[in-house]
Amino acid sequence: MKHIADWALNVAALRGASYADARLADDRSRGLATKNGKIGHAADSESLGIGVRVIADGAWGYAASDDLSRSAVEATAALAVEIARASSRVKQSEVRLAPEKAVSAEWTTPFQIDPLTTSVEQNLDLLLKIDSELCAVKGVTLAETNMNFRREEQWFVSSEGSNIHQTKYTTGVGYAAHAFAGSDIQKRSYPNSFGGQWQNKGYELIGELKLVENARRVGEEAVALLKADQCPEGVFDILLDGSQLGLQIHESVGHPIELDRVLGMEANFAGTSFLTLDKLRKLRYGSDLVNVVADARQEHGPGLGTFAFDEEGVPAQCTPIITKGLFTGYLTSRETAHAIGANRSGGTLRAEGWNRLPIIRMTNISILPGEKPLTREQLIASTEKGIYMETNRSWSIDDKRYNFQFGCEVGWELKNGKRTRMLRNPSYSGITTEFWNAMDAICSRDEWVLWGTPHCGKGQPQQVMGTGHGAAPARFRGVKVGSAYKGN
Amino acid sequence: MLKALLTFMLDKNKAADIFGKIKKYSSADEVEALIYGGHSALTRFANNTIHQNVTEANYVVSVRTAFDGRTARATTNKVDDESLKRVVAASETLAKVQHPDADLLPMPEAGGGARSTQTYPVPSRYFEATAAITPEQRAEAVSKIVGVAQKHKLTTAGIFSTSESVEGIFNSRGLGDWYSQTSSEVSVTMLAADSSGWQKANSPNVAHLDAVTLAEIAARKAFESAGPHEIPAGKYTVILEPAAVLDIVGFMFFDFGGLAILDQRSFLNNRVGTKLFGENINIWDDVAHPLQSGAPFDGEGVRRQRVQLVENGVVKRLVYARATAEKMRKSEYKEKVGRIEPTGHGFSIPNEMGEAPMNIVFGGAREPKTVEQMIGSTERGILVTRLWYIREVDPYEKILTGMTRDGTFFVQDGKIRHGVRNFRFNQSLIHMLSSVEEMGTPMRASGEESFDMVVPAMKVGEFNFTEVTKF
Ligand SMILES: [Zn+2]
Asked: Do B76 and A83 make contact, defined as CB atoms within 8 angstroms?
C-alpha cells in the first residue's frame, strides 16, 4: 500500500508542494441491532481510499479519491496542489508547521479477540437474549440493542519521510428500554445511552460488561420512572455517575480546549471558545480536586482516543489540561502549536476517514480519580441532602461552551447519606467554570471507567469521531436543578 | 487527463451493469443494490483566510440480499469484480444466520409499489454551472466575502461548497430508478469584538447563490448586535427567522413515521387526528416542490408521494414504508391514524426507524408578513437569527432545549433596539406551533440542527427562555 501513497507524494513534489502527506485507509465495520425481539439490522461496510494533503504557495489543499489506480492517485495529488494554489489567493499569512521528527512505525490496538471474526449468529443471539430480558418486564414498550465493530487500517507517508502503519479496533455495545404510558415516555439505557459503551479493544469488551445480568433491572427502572416523582426545581448538591461526568467533560472541557476553536477556525459551525489565549495558566477552571488530562497513549487505557500517532504523524502524548484546578493546556496540531508558543504539536489531529481532512479532535480527555479511597456508596453516604443523577438523556451547550444544560435518565433523592425516592426527568444547568469550581469530591480509581463517546461531530464537511473520557462519580455543590421543565 | 479522471460520473447504464454482476454473483432469493456517490468540494475560510479546502470523489455500492424472511446489507466503495463478489457474499452471510422474520416483505416491483397515479415529475436539479465550478471560482467568491468583512472591519468564517451526486436503486424484481443533482451552499459568519452575525443559503443552481448579499446581511447583524445587553430570561414574544424555525421544528418529523407510533416512541402517540397546533399550521411533505431537493424515491425504491401531515393544526396523516403500512393495517391503531398506505418515505432496509418525511414544506399565512413587519408589530420581544445545539428534553411534550446564536436582538415598540446576550430556551414544540401569531412567505432554509426545508419566518408568543449565557 505504501507504494500507492508514494505516487501521491511524488506528484505533489513535482507540482511544487512544499509539504505533502498521503493517508491510505481501509475501514471495515459491522453493525448489529435488535428491536422488540427481532433483528433490527445486520450490516457490513468497507471503504478504501486515499487522501492527499499538501501545502503549496503557503496554503492548504486536500483531495481524496476512492480510485487507487496510479493515474487516479496522481491526478488526486495534482488536484490537491491546484486547490492549495487556489487557497493561497485568500490568505493573511503562510501556513507553518511545528517541526516533527520523521518516523517509521507499526502499531495495532492491543486486543484479545478480533471482533470482526466472531460469530454473527452468536452475537445476534446475545442481543436477542438481552432484548427478551427487557421485553419480559411488564410495561416496557420498546426494547433496543446494538453491537458495533470497526477495524481501521491506515498507511501514512509524508514528504518529510514518515511512514506509519496503524490498525485500530473498536467495539461498542449497548441497549435501552423505553416505557410509554399516559402522556410520558421514559427510558433507561445500559451501560450508557446513545449506543452504550465503546472502547478501542477487541470483542473481550462484550464479556466485561455484565450485559444480560443488568437487563431486567434496566427494564424495571424504565417502567418505574413512569410513576416516579418529578425531579424538583431549585439549587441542590448533585452527584453524577461516571458516564454522565464523561459527557460533562466532553462538552465543557474537551471542546473548549480545542485550539482551532479558540483561534476562530470553527466559528461558522461548531463555534469558538471562552478559553481565550490569555487564560492559559491563569484561569481557575475548577476546584483543587479537578485534574484533567488529554492522553492518547496506550497506557491511559483502551479509549476511543487512543493511538500511537495522530493523522499527521505526531506521537501520542499526555497533555495536562487542568492541574489542581488551574487551566494548563490546549489540544494542538502542527499548524496551531505556535499560537500558544509551543514548539511541538500535542498530537491531536484526527480524521473520520480517508476522505476527510484531519482536524483537531479530542483524544481521551479524562478527569483523574481522587487520590483518597472513595467508593460511590461512600460518596452517597457522605451526602446529607442531594440528588444523584445517572445516564445522559439530553445535552446542550452554547457555542463558546459557557452555559450548559444536561438531562439524565434517572435521579435519586439523597437524604442523610441514603438513596430515598426515584426522581424522573432530572436535569441540571450552569456555567462551565462555576460548575467545575463546585466539585468537592470525586471517587477513586476503583470507580474510574474510560467511557467512549462514539459520535462527536465537528468540521465542515462534518466528521464524526470517537473520543474517550475517563471519569468516576463526583459531587458538585449548589447546582441549579430542574430548569429544563421550568415554564413548561 | 486530470479533468477526465476527476469528473468521472457514474450513470444509470453503468450502474445497471454493476447491478447485473451483483445479481449474477448472488444466490439469494432476492437482491437489491443502492448505488450512489459523486464528487464534492468545500472551500472553508476563517480569520479572513481560506484555511481548509477539500475535494472528494467516492462511489458506493450497497447490496441487500434476502432469503425467506432474512435480510442484511453490505456496502463497499469498490466496483471491481472481486469486490462485488465479496460484498454480495458478506450480505448473504449476515442474512443466512438470522431467524426468519414473517414481517419481511418481498422487494417491490418496478414502479416502486406506490400507486402510480400518485407520482408526478420532480423538476431537474442538475445544473452544469454548479458541476463545473473550479477551486479558483470558489476562492474568488470567498475573496468577495472577505472583502465585505474587511470593509466593515469584521472577521469572517464560513464555507462555499459545491457537489454533483447520483443515487440509484435496482432490485431483482426489475425495479430500477436513478436520480442525479447538483448542490451548492454558502454559509457566512461575521465576527465583531463581542457580537456576530450569520447567514446560510443553498441551491442546486450555484447562480442562485448571492454570497455578497449573504455576507452583507451577516455583517449588519454583527455590528448591529455589538455591545449586547443582558436582559433577564423569561417568556418573550420571539420573531424566528426561517433558519431558526427549521432547526427547532425539524426535531418532530421523525415522529411522523408510522413505525414511531407502532413503537410508541412518538409524541403523536394517541394524538393523530387531534388538533395539536394552531389553526394556521399546515405542513406537507413534497419532494417535487420547486424549492425542495433530493431523490423522488425512498430507500426501497418506492416513489415519494405528496402527503399533507398537518391541516389547520390537526395532525392528519403519517408517512409509511411498505412494511410499516402492512403492520399498521393489522394494529390496534389502524382506525386512528388516517389513511394507511406506503408513501415512499422508508429508509433503506434493514433499519429500526422505519420512515420519516424529509421534504417538509410549510404552508404560509393568509396574509404573509415580512420579518420587518413582524418587528414593526411587536411591542416587546426578541428577534432570533439562528438556534444552536438543540436537543430533546422531553419526548412526549416535545420540550426542546437549545441556544440562540449569531444575532439575537431586543425589539421594543416596533423597532430593533440592541443586541442581547444569548438565551437558553426550553420550549415545547406543541406550544410553540400553537402560539404562532404571524408568518412570512415560506422559503428554502438551511441550518445546522435539522435537514433543509421550506419554512416561513414566525412570530411566536410566550417563547420560554430559561437562562442567559455570558455573551
Ligand atoms: Zn463533541
From this structure: no
Q: Is the dihedral of CA B427, B431, B432, B435 positive or negative?
A: negative
Protein fold of B2-207: PmbA/TldD fold (3.30.2290)
**Pick from B60, B390, B471: CB nearest A396:** B390
Closest approach of A223 to chain B, Cα-based (Å): 14
Phi first, then psi: what are they for A81, rounded to 5°? -70, -40
Nearest Cβ partner for B98 among A39, A84, A400 = A39
ipTM of the complex: 0.97
Length in residues, chain A: 488
Q: What is the mean pLDDT of each run of 10 residues along chain B (471 residues)?
A: 61 96 98 97 98 97 97 97 98 97 94 52 92 97 98 98 97 96 98 98 97 98 98 98 98 98 98 98 96 96 96 98 97 97 97 98 96 98 98 98 98 98 98 98 97 98 98 97
- Ligand 1 centroid to A82 CA: how many Å? 32
- Which DSSP letter does residue A265 get? T
- Cβ atoms within 10 Å, residue A212: 13
* Interchain contact, A63 vs B263, CB within 8 Å: no
A43-52 as b/e: b if 16+ CB within 10 A: bbbbbbbbbb
Task: Answer yes or no: do B424 and A396 touch at CB < 8 A.
Answer: yes
CA A292 – ligand 1 centroid, Å: 17
Sequence-distant (6+) residues with CB within 8 A of B419 are: B195, B224, B225, B226, B227, B228, B229, B407, B408, B409, B410
Predicted local distance difference test score (pLDDT) of residue B118: 44
Kindly list the residues from chain B whose CB atom is less than 8 angstroms away from the CB atom of residue A42: 72-73, 94-95, 98, 350
Residue A72 structural domain: 2-227
Q: What is the CATH number of the domain that holds A183?
A: 3.30.2290.10
Q: Do A247 and A218 sit in the same domain of this protein?
A: no
Residues contacting B221, CB < 8 A, separation 6+: B190, B196, B197, B198, B199, B385, B406, B407
Q: Do residue A144 and residue A253 come from a single domain?
A: no
Query: Does A427 contact B at CB distance below 8 Å?
Result: yes
Residues A191 and A260 in one domain: no
Look at B393 and A427 and tell me if their CB atoms are within 8 Å.
yes
